[in-house]
TrEMBL record:
Organism superkingdom: Bacteria
Gene Ontology terms, MF aspect: ATP binding
Organism: Venenivibrio stagnispumantis
Residue ranges of the TM segments: none
Matches recorded under InterPro entries: AAA+_ATPase, IstB_ATP-bd, P-loop_NTPase
GO biological processes: DNA replication
Protein name (Swiss-Prot/TrEMBL): DNA replication protein DnaC
Source taxonomy: Bacteria, Pseudomonadati, Aquificota, Aquificia, Aquificales
Length: 235
């Protein structure tokens, strides 16, 4: 028997706090729980607070390049090329939506395939890894997660020239994922004229890393107005 006090304590009138509702398409997770699960997933995937709400739905393309990049990103999640190690390399000037798309991909993989990926700003990763190696071997778990996570996003990659140490670590990460056919999604402000002639990339990160990335990733230019200046979105 349902008591009055039980009804008064119910917070969601849609699912009655069960977390699930019945629709014509079947049983689905209620919105009240979806936000809770997404928040937990963001933490697990290391998604920054600034991009906590970034999704395909709220990505508003302005240019044709942005529309194309969004379409490719959505198709990527629903196709199976990622199982063979295919990744994506978004490049273009700051503020055009590269990070937004990369985060949206991670979220969609979690939502549709229950795959928990891992997000890291490339510069912060290098600093955190260096600190981990300097302090304790137990902290090297971070490197293992970066190598083995099902979907890895490296954000703002190649924004500055790599030190010899950083180049060796990046090469190790990419080579490990390449050999195990684990995909990597990269965002970069490096202006690459064409995939067939990415001299700036070679110059910045080295021949070995560039060679593997050219084989692993589809290169996608994201061009358009700076969203930050327009006040509409985040990179």
């Amino acid at each position: 028997m349902i008591l009055k006090k039980d009804i008064e304590e119910i917070k969601c009138n849609k699912c009655y706090d069960t977390g699930w509702i019945k629709t014509d398409e079947g049983v689905v997770r209620c919105d009240c729980k979806e936000k809770e699960y997404q928040k937990k997933a963001n933490i697990l995937m290391n998604i920054p607070k600034r991009y906590a709400d970034a999704t395909f739905e709220n990505f508003r393309p302005i240019s044709e390049e942005q529309k194309k990049a969004k379409n490719i990103s959505q198709e990527y999640v629903y196709e199976n090329d990622y199982k063979k190690g295919k990744g994506l390399f978004f490049y273009g000037k700051p503020g055009v939506g590269k990070t937004h798309l990369a985060v949206a991909i991670l979220k969609e993989f979690y939502k549709t395939r229950n795959i928990i990926g891992f997000f890291y700003d490339a510069r912060i990763l290098m600093n955190d890894l260096k600190s981990a190696f300097d302090v304790s071997s137990s902290n090297k778990d971070l490197l293992q997660r970066v190598i083995k996570t099902p979907i890895l996003v490296l954000d703002d990659f190649g924004s500055e020239r790599l030190t010899d140490w950083a180049r060796d670590i990046i090469n190790y990460i990419i080579a490990s994922r390449y050999n195990e056919e684990l995909p990597i999604i990269i965002t970069s402000n490096i202006q690459i004229e064409a995939k067939e002639n990415p001299e700036q990339l070679r110059e910045r990160i080295g021949e070995s890393i560039t060679s593997r990335l050219l084989h692993m990733c589809e290169f996608i230019e994201v061009a358009g107005e700076d969203y930050r200046m327009l006040g509409k979105a985040k990179d």
